[in-house]
Design goal:
The structure is a single chain. The two termini are about 45 Å apart. Helix 1 (about 10-15) runs parallel beside helix 7 (about 140-155) and helix 9 (about 200-220) packs across helix 10 (about 220-225). It contains 11 helices and 9 strands. Strands 2-1-6-5-7 form a 5-stranded parallel beta sheet. A two-stranded antiparallel ribbon has the order 3-4. A hairpin with a 2-residue loop joins strand 8 (about 185) and strand 9. Helix content is about 45%, strand content about 15%. The structure holds 4-(1H-imidazol-5-yl)pyridine.
Length: about 260
């Protein structure tokens, strides 16, 4: 898959993508990321990309022309039918389902804005959608672009090894993760749950599903609402609640 990014800080994105699973996808060539810096498209001697805000106030606004030229350069390298996504705090909330859809698009151009602002006429006229990764103020769209690229890259066939894919599949079904443990079996009096060392694979699977259900109920009830449960899962969750009532939970779970 080819992704183009319009950004004033290409090095920030390129270097962050060099590591781990995504770095491997880039090396193997299953993912290609290209960068288009509006500064390279500015036409004046100072390579100006921003200007003062009409209406006054502090903070500079990114100008239409350099952004538009960079975006057109980016779009030219992309297959027909590729989509242009502006990353901005007031966009549609980015979720896993959107990563799956974007993976299947012919191409993707991401535009990272700056916090102070981007001329609205560029967003309106030159981009197809606006995505936000969450409700916080960031200095720009570069970190959101990295989040989006990472989430999509993991879904490209050939990016993950078979073990990683198996892990991914078990969690893309609308529940949060179950808890994980590795050696040593006992540390400072904290033991690994005995079932995980029992060798009973059916019991282990049941326990993990129960933990995932229980944690989703505690921490992300809206996910459980959206997903629904089978009769068997409902029974597992009820058992989780009963066991939990007789134990001690974490502070962040105490609202339940
Ligand atoms: C973009 C925040 C996407 C969240 C871009 C300032 C942003 C953002 N999601 N904040 N510039």
């Amino acid at each position: 898959m080819r992704i183009a990014v319009v950004t004033l800080f290409p090095v920030m994105i390129r270097e962050a993508l060099e590591h781990g699973v995504v770095g491997r996808a880039l090396q193997r060539g299953v993912l290609e990321v290209e960068y288009f810096d509006p500064r390279d498209y500015a036409t004046d001697v100072h390579r100006t990309v921003d200007d003062r805000s009409y209406g006054g106030g502090p903070g500079m606004v990114l100008k239409v022309e350099p952004l538009r030229s960079a975006l057109r350069g980016a779009t030219a390298t992309q297959p027909a039918g590729s989509r242009r996504v502006y990353l901005g705090a007031d966009g549609r909330r980015f979720e896993q389902g959107m990563a799956r859809e974007a993976r299947d698009w012919p191409g993707l151009v991401l535009v990272a804005g700056r916090y102070e602002g981007v001329d609205e006429r560029f967003i309106e006229r030159e981009t197809d959608e606006q995505w936000s990764i969450g409700d916080y103020v960031l200095s720009g769209g570069e970190l959101p672009a990295l989040v989006v690229i990472d989430a999509i890259a993991r879904l490209i066939p050939g990016t993950l090894g078979s073990a990683e894919s198996a892990v991914q599949e078990s969690f893309s079904d609308g529940l949060v993760d179950w808890p994980h443990y590795t050696r040593p079996p006992n540390i400072d009096g904290q033991a690994v749950p005995a079932v995980l060392m029992s060798g009973d694979h059916a019991a282990i699977h049941r326990w993990r599903l129960q933990q995932a259900l229980g944690r989703t109920w505690l921490r992300r009830p809206e996910l459980l609402e959206r997903r629904g449960m089978s009769d068997e899962e409902r029974a597992l969750l009820e058992e989780f609640k009963i066991e939990r009532a007789s134990g001690t939970g974490r502070i962040e779970d105490s609202q339940r």
